[in-house]
Every structure is written in structure tokens, then in C-alpha cells.
Write a structure and sequence with these properties.
seven-stranded mixed β-sheet; Rossmann fold; about 20% strand; alpha/beta; about 220 residues; globular
Length: about 220
């Protein structure tokens, strides 16, 4: 079965077929922590950087402009989002600097898609909360990190420092878009880090509105 035939691919295409055109305009106000993640990549010249669930390509273009000597790659399960990402790269005149491929984050094979086995940096921005088998996706992302490289993740936290009514309203609204913040994200990342002899740096941002994590593999 091809990626395009999977149920989750169909769901994501259906959700974003029209919404992708205004996605970046609306998400800038509540997908907090993305630019902090990008700044923290610290991608040096020649480093290969992969975004898992690249969506509209907004993050990749921002990262490419910040680290122009690195190599950038993006994958997403939604063909609709990839169409927008490719168009955005062309509009920014960066289409020769970034490569895209369709794939399932839980079993993505970068060697088959890009001819590359490992990446010095892999990042996931607000994708963990949208992937049903998110643990498998994070584990696969970690397997794609080269020795000495790192996996960077930002996503919704549990709003632990914010009023309860805010959390209830936000989570109800996110549910309409099939987004489920992962309450056990920190514990899961700790287990995955241990399995790869990696270190875990986990931060709560904006009173728990978002969580930022970096898993670094030993060289």
C-alpha cells in the first residue's frame, strides 16, 4: 500500500486541503516555540537537517535562511501540504536548496527518499500531537539521527501554569483538528533517550503552553 492510500494520509489531506492556504497566517499566533527550536538547531555548514512533518515548509525556509550553508530536507504524509511547501520554496527562490518527500513518520526511510541514511539534525514542530502512533514516529526520528547529532521537538504542553478553563477551551478546539497534546511526552522521550544512550533536555515554555525537548546522541 502506498503512502497516499493510508487512512491517516487521507485524513490529513482532507483536513488541510483548504486550510493549508491560510495555515501559516493563523498558526503564527499559537504555535509558540517554533522559532526557538529553529534557533537551537545550530546547524553548521554541511550539516544535513530533516524536518519530520514539514507541513507548509515554513520552518524549513526559516531554518534555511538562518543556516544557509546547511542542507535541508522535509517529509510529510500529506500531499496537499507538500504541494504548499514546494510552492513556498519556489516563491522564496529556495527550491534548489531544499528537498521534499512524502512519507509516513512512523517508518520513514530517508535513504530511499533522499539517498541519505542519517542526519545531524532532525526536528519535529507540532507534529507529535497530530500523529496517532507518535511514539513510533519519535523512535523512527531518533534512528535517523547521526552519531553526535540531535533530535529537536516542540509541541503543545499541558498548560500546567495556565488557568484550567484555558486548557479546557484550547484542548476542545484542538480536537476539531485531530490534535492531541501528549501528557506523557516527557516520560516517553526519557525512555527513548535512554534506549539510544542519548541525553534529554526538556523545557516548559510559556507556563506550560508548549514543551521543547532536545535529545542528543553520543558521538
Amino acid at each position: 500500500m502506498s503512502i497516499a492510500d493510508t487512512g491517516h494520509s487521507h485524513l490529513m489531506d482532507r483536513v488541510y486541503r483548504n486550510q493549508r492556504h491560510i495555515y501559516d497566517l493563523t498558526r503564527r499566533y499559537y504555535l509558540l516555540g517554533r522559532d526557538r527550536l529553529i534557533a537551537g538547531l545550530g546547524a553548521r555548514p554541511g550539516m544535513r537537517v530533516l524536518e519530520v512533518g514539514c507541513g507548509t515548509g515554513r520552518n524549513l525556509i526559516s531554518a534555511l535562511r538562518r543556516f544557509p550553508q546547511a542542507e535541508f530536507y522535509g517529509m510529510d504524509i500529506s500531499s496537499e501540504m507538500l504541494a504548499t511547501a514546494r510552492a513556498a520554496a519556489c516563491k522564496a527562490r529556495l527550491e534548489q536548496r531544499v528537498s521534499f518527500a512524502q512519507g509516513d513518520a512512523t517508518d520513514f526511510d530517508p535513504e530511499r527518499a533522499f539517498g541519505i541514511r542519517k542526519f545531524e539534525r532532525v526536528f519535529m514542530s507540532y507534529t507529535v500531537s497530530m500523529i496517532p502512533e507518535w511514539r513510533r514516529a519519535v523512535e523512527q526520528a531518533m534512528r535517523n539521527v547521526a552519531p553526535g547529532g540531535s533530535l529537536h521537538i516542540v509541541d503543545f504542553g499541558q498548560q500546567e501554569g495556565l488557568p484550567r478553563f484555558f486548557r479546557a477551551l484550547l484542548f476542545a478546539w484542538l480536537g476539531w483538528f485531530h490534535v492531541s497534546p501528549r501528557a506523557d511526552l516527557r516520560e516517553a522521550l526519557g525512555e527513548i533517550a535512554a534506549a539510544h544512550d542519548a541525553t534529554l533536555d526538556f523545557q516548559s515554555l510559556h507556563r506550560g503552553y508548549s514543551w521543547l525537548a532536545v535529545l542528543k546522541r553520543p558521538a
